[in-house]
Structures are given as C-alpha cells and as structure tokens.
Design a protein that fits this description.
The chain is an alpha+beta fold and 236 residues long. The chain contains four helices and ten strands; from the N terminus they run H-H-E-E-E-E-E-H-E-E-E-E-H-E. Strands 2-3-4-9-7-6-5-10 form an eight-stranded mixed beta barrel.
C-alpha cells in the first residue's frame, strides 16, 4: 500500500490495525482493512523445538499490559489459532541472529536466534493486491506512533481525511503500541511491522501490505530489534 513517508505516516501496514470496540471511535477493521480476506492456506514453516502453549499459558503471555502509556487490554486468545502463539521453532538459515524473516504465505514472522532456532510469531499480512516482498531493514522505531493516512488512502476512503494531520498514538491508532518502519537504500518503503489488538486478524491477509503482530508479540520483537536490523519479506 502507498503511504506518506512523513513523520509517523504509515505505509502499507499503517492501514492495518485492530478494530475499535468503543462507541464514538473509528472502526478500524472496516476503515483500515477494507474488505477482509478470508484465512488462506496455512502450513508450518518449521518444526517446533518446544511444545506450544496451552490456552492457560497463552492467556498469561497475551494478558493485559497495565504499565503501558496506554494500558493494553488482554488479547482474547480463544480467537487465535494456537499455531500462531509465540514459540521457538527450528529454522535453518544462513542469516545472522536477529534477522527478521516475514513469511506472508504462512502468516508467520521469524526472529532468527542462531543455532538453527528462531522465535516464531503469528501475523496478519497484506491482502490481495497489496502484498510485497524483498529485502529491507529497520530504519526507524516508534512507540505509540502518530498515524497519518496517505493521500492514496484518503482518495479511496474519504472518511480518512479527518486524520490527514495525523492521528495521535493510542489504543485506537492503527499502528498500535510499537512500530518498526522498513527502509531500503535510505528510503522508507511505506511498509511497517506494527502491533495489533485484533486477535481475529492473525492468520489473515487483510492489511494494505503491512505486517501485524499481536501487541505482546510485537513488544517482544521490538525490544530485541535495533535500528538497521535486516528484514526479509518472502514472496507470498
């Protein structure tokens, strides 16, 4: 998806976010996602090296985050396929530890840990017509970033015009609690990896090209990802 390269103007991913449940707030699912695409064919991209979480364990890992600038509610893990819970898996690669590999065909994001292992996170990805692939790097990071809809989005969805000057960070902001901005050759690609509160979006192609992780997973990845980290987005 196209997006402004300004301050925290989000790119393809910036349009993807969790839905808003409170009256009076923007309905991000309908506004940001447009027509949601059904869950595609799913398959594992690596053999698990540790057992997956139980529902009780997942409820703790994806529980509320009251100490955030904007307290984050618990994720309803009953709405997430357990295959998308965070876990350590076997992942053979020559890429250096810390490298992020996005596998949109299978709705996973991997952080390479070395010694044939990776941390795997479930993700939402771009819908048909908004997918992309290639090598990039993290050019910028932000907590509770401002979201600015690109002109192209405002043209498609005029209701976005009221945020042309930027939507401040918060629970209703499409970028969520943390954002990794992807760059190539010094230029912003218009794509991000962002935090989502939308449990039902994980395992789906519904964004305008960006990649969303559940907020606790994004916080985990964000804290361990410095600027300049290599990111590889595989073809879908």
């Amino acid at each position: 998806m196209m997006i402004n390269g300004g301050n925290a103007g989000i790119g393809a991913a910036d349009e993807a976010a969790s839905p808003v449940g409170q009256a009076g707030f923007l309905n991000r699912r309908s506004f940001m996602f447009g027509s949601a695409i059904g869950i595609g064919t799913l398959s594992l991209a690596g053999c698990a090296t540790s057992d997956g979480m139980s529902l009780a364990e997942a409820s703790k890992v994806y529980g509320p985050l009251p100490n955030e600038k904007f307290p984050v509610p618990a994720i309803d893990v009953s709405k997430v396929n357990p295959k998308y819970y965070r876990r350590t898996v076997r992942y053979d690669t020559r890429e250096a530890p810390g490298t992020i590999i996005v596998d949109p065909a299978n709705y996973y994001v991997y952080r390479i840990e070395g010694d044939g292992a990776a941390t795997r996170y479930g993700a939402n990805v771009g819908r048909d017509g908004f997918r992309w692939s290639g090598d990039a790097y993290v050019g910028r990071k932000a907590e509770w970033a401002t979201w600015t809809p690109p002109k192209e989005m405002i043209k498609r969805q005029p209701e976005a015009a009221k945020y042309a000057g930027g939507m401040p960070g918060g629970l209703d902001n499409p970028l969520g609690a943390r954002t990794l901005y992807l760059y190539q050759n010094g230029a912003y690609t218009l794509y991000t990896i962002y935090a989502s509160l939308d449990a039902e979006s994980i395992g789906s192609g519904i964004t305008s090209g960006c990649v969303g992780l559940l907020t606790p997973d994004m916080l985990d990845l964000y804290e361990r990802t410095p600027v300049k980290t290599k990111v590889i987005v595989l073809p879908a």
